[in-house]
Design goal:
Blueprint (H helix, E strand, L loop, with lengths): L1 H33 L1
Amino acid sequence: MIPFILGTVVGGTTGVVAMCLCTAAKMADIKSGIE
């Protein structure tokens, strides 16, 4: 049970970080497109 919880936390954190990176990349594309 504990390994499952750890896996969920790590997977969730990785997913959040990936989403943040994707969002940052999109924001950068929009800013560079405006400029």
